[in-house]
Specification:
The protein contains 35 helices and 7 strands. By secondary structure, it is mainly alpha-helical.
């Protein structure tokens, strides 16, 4: 610990500090430091915090410090940087160790509960409760409920309720689940305990119980407790807001470092915990809240939308993790089944969910919702319109694909905005994703524009907290750009979180700063850039992973080109003119999976301006027969529709193909193009003579 204090550079000799003798002293010093910090007495606060570290607080004590202090205060210390930041990180680290050591150890829990009795020494009892909360947390609740439901031992019941209150936020979710018990006496005391804790997460459930429980004692206790938890009196908006907060992982319901690996429910076996992958935990809680909202009002479209969004978010998150080579954690089949629940939500709910996702920057979920709506919606929706106009190119492309599919299915033709979006999607050669986290709005916007101009799909977030919250909702991030100065978090905190996330740990990170050496103080920063002129450095740093990005872009382009071809040949021959330049741009170097459907679309919707690109494919003996045939057929389609006459360039390419050893399919296609083109009689006679076939045995 002495070495750590030196590393902090606090400039205070430990010999001059009266070392606290216990964690209790450390708690008192910490409380003093917090109060001094709130009063703006930074120097004195820092001295107290130094003494806290010198006391070598254990994990449980650090956990109590973290849990009992507003998140805003920790954020203040992190933003102050320097010694305050290091102190905050040390306490957070110790707290996390305490949580990571928690386990569902029935024997350990029972051993501690034997000390949580009315006749035990108060100091030892409080110590046991602290250990219980720090080591076992929520897992202790099922073992404590019997006492809450025992009408014959009031003293023990009161002690246990008080102990649960001291354990605070960790016990809230299992206690909320216990409100589903058939035992009215237990429900009453659970409601009272939740009221003492006064956690907003319990407000919705308590409000519902207060309005619907048939037992007057439970009703009264739940009503008072709900008010303490901040209830508005209407459970529906409370459940809906709780679901939204869980989905976004907001700090008022999911504080940093305090996610769990289980969700709680009440059933025939009483209070039980079901394991859930950590990456899906927030949305699993969101689903619970939205199902509760649906129980309050079966007609709630917001509840159905929230459920659809949560299910799709879980599917997208697990798919992304598995694509990155991570373990599916045994829930793959369950998530596949979830597609049924998503479809039953209905188009209106799915569309609302898409609007939410597009507006909040939840790209990963939005993309999957676009795909679902593309299959289900009978006509264009407002949510798809919002997504089509998204600044995120990937989301906009998926919206265009969905709208194109809807237009084809209903035979009404696609809008010009949809076909233009499909053309842009077809023209993407490398699907590279970059995110910019910068509180400087002007610089962040300029960087995003520059990245987009270089062919990337770029997203800008103006705060570190928002960036960290949404980063895992952007599929396949290829570069992360972080400003060295943010309004809410330190760059170090953002970088630590990025490196601690399996999905982003290997993504190149670039520092945005006016100081060219700013990134040198951090491990793993690829380069420091000052603004838009640094895009080349970003591109260079991303080059190693372009193979996968190119495959993704080709898949998107192939789907866009196929959709445009279907629209062009669909009922009424839809107008795809806004997309033809994008389609033509694919022909030079893209694989057949992209170019052949692109040329099929050009056959129905192309113009004379695209003919040079088609001739280049047709005349290239190195291209596949399929591609050359498609180019000739597209040329024929344009020639017939535009009533074109052959010029020297066209005639030269066609003559070369007919006079070559190209396959019969290619030469037949070239001859069809010649048949469609206008030319004078002598030119046509020349081709007819040149292609003479003498039949003989």
């Amino acid at each position: 610990m002495i070495g750590f204090c030196r590393a902090l550079g606090l400039g205070l000799a430990l010999a001059s500090i009266t070392l606290p003798a216990s964690s209790q002293d450390a708690d008192a010093l910490f409380a003093e430091g917090v109060e001094l910090l709130r009063q703006g007495e930074d120097e004195q606060a820092l001295e107290r915090f130094t003494q806290v570290l010198a006391a070598e607080p254990d994990h449980e004590s650090a956990y109590e410090m973290w849990k009992s202090t507003d998140e805003d205060l920790w954020l203040t210390m992190l933003v102050k940087g320097g010694q305050f930041e290091l102190f905050a990180k040390r306490v957070m680290s110790l707290s996390e160790l305490a949580r990571s050591e928690r386990r569902n150890d029935e024997e350990g829990i029972r051993d501690l509960l034997r000390r949580v009795t009315p006749d035990n020494d108060v100091v030892d009892r409080k110590r046991a409760v602290r250990e219980l909360g720090a080591n076992f947390g929520e897992y202790a609740v099922p073992h404590m409920l019997f006492s809450l439901g025992d009408p014959d031992d009031e003293e023990r019941r009161v002690v246990m309720m008080h102990s649960l209150t001291e354990m605070d936020s960790d016990v809230v979710l299992p206690l909320v689940a216990a409100l589903g018990s058939d035992d009215a006496f237990l429900r009453r005391n659970v409601a009272l305990t939740l009221g003492y804790i006064a956690d907003p997460r319990a407000a919705a459930a308590l409000t519902w119980v207060a309005l619907n429980d048939e037992d007057p004692g439970v009703e009264m206790a739940a009503k008072a407790a709900a008010i303490k938890c901040g209830s508005s009196g209407d459970p529906l908006p409370l459940f809906e807001q709780l679901g939204d907060d869980y989905h976004h992982g907001r700090g008022n319901v999911l504080r940093a470092h305090f996610h769990s690996d289980v969700v709680w429910s009440w059933g025939d076996d009483g209070l039980t915990a079901a394991p859930v992958p950590r990456a899906l935990y927030a949305d699993e809680l969101a689903k619970g809240a939205y199902y509760d909202a649906l129980g309050v009002d079966p007609g709630s479209i917001a509840a159905r939308a929230g459920l659809a969004r949560a299910y799709v978010s879980q599917q997208a998150e697990m798919a992304a993790r598995m694509e990155a080579g991570m373990d599916g954690e045994g829930v793959e089949d369950q998530l596949a089944e979830a597609a049924i629940a998503v479809n039953t939500a209905g188009v209106s709910a799915l569309d609302l969910a898409l609007s939410w996702s597009a507006e909040s920057g939840d790209v990963q979920t939005g993309i999957e919702l676009c795909r679902v709506l593309g299959e289900l919606a009978p006509e264009p929706t407002s949510g798809l319109g919002v997504a089509l106009g998204s600044a995120d190119g990937g989301l906009a492309a998926e919206a265009a694909l969905a709208l194109g599919n809807i237009a084809f299915n209903n035979g009404r033709g696609a809008s010009s905005a949809t076909t233009a979006g499909l053309g842009r999607a077809a023209g993407l050669e490398v699907l590279r994703m970059a995110v910019v986290i910068d509180s400087d709005a002007e610089r962040g916007a300029a960087l995003t524009d520059a990245l987009s101009g270089s062919g990337m799909i770029a997203t800008h977030w103006n705060s570190g907290a928002k960036g960290l919250a949404l980063l895992h909702r952007v599929p396949g991030v290829d570069a992360i750009l972080v400003a060295d100065q943010l309004d809410d978090l330190t760059a170090a905190q953002v970088l630590d979180s990025v490196r601690g996330n399996e999905r982003t740990a290997s993504v190149p990170v670039f520092m945005i700063s006016g100081d060219a050496q700013a990134g040198d103080m951090y491990d793993g920063v690829a380069a420091t850039i000052s603004g838009p002129d640094g895009v080349a450095a970003v591109e260079e740093g991303m080059s190693a992973g372009l193979g996968h990005d190119r495959d993704q872009a080709n898949d998107l382009a192939a789907r866009a080109a196929t959709t445009l071809a279907a629209l062009a040949y669909g009922a009424g021959g839809g107008d795809i003119s806004p997309a033809v330049d994008g389609l033509a741009s694919t022909l030079a170097a893209r694989p057949d999976s992209v170019t052949i459907p692109a040329m099929r679309a050009l056959s129905a919707g192309g113009r004379a301006a695209q003919i040079p690109a088609l001739l280049a494919v047709l005349g290239d003996s190195g291209r596949s027969d399929g591609a050359r045939t498609a180019a000739a057929d597209a040329l024929a389609g344009i020639a017939g529709r535009e009533r074109l006459s052959a010029n020297a360039d066209i005639l030269a390419v066609l003559a070369g193909v007919l006079d070559s050893d190209a396959s019969l399919a290619v030469r037949m296609a070239a001859s069809r193009a010649l048949g469609r083109l206008g030319m004078d009689a002598s030119q046509r006679a020349g081709f007819t003579h040149g292609t003479r076939v003498n039949v003989s045995q």
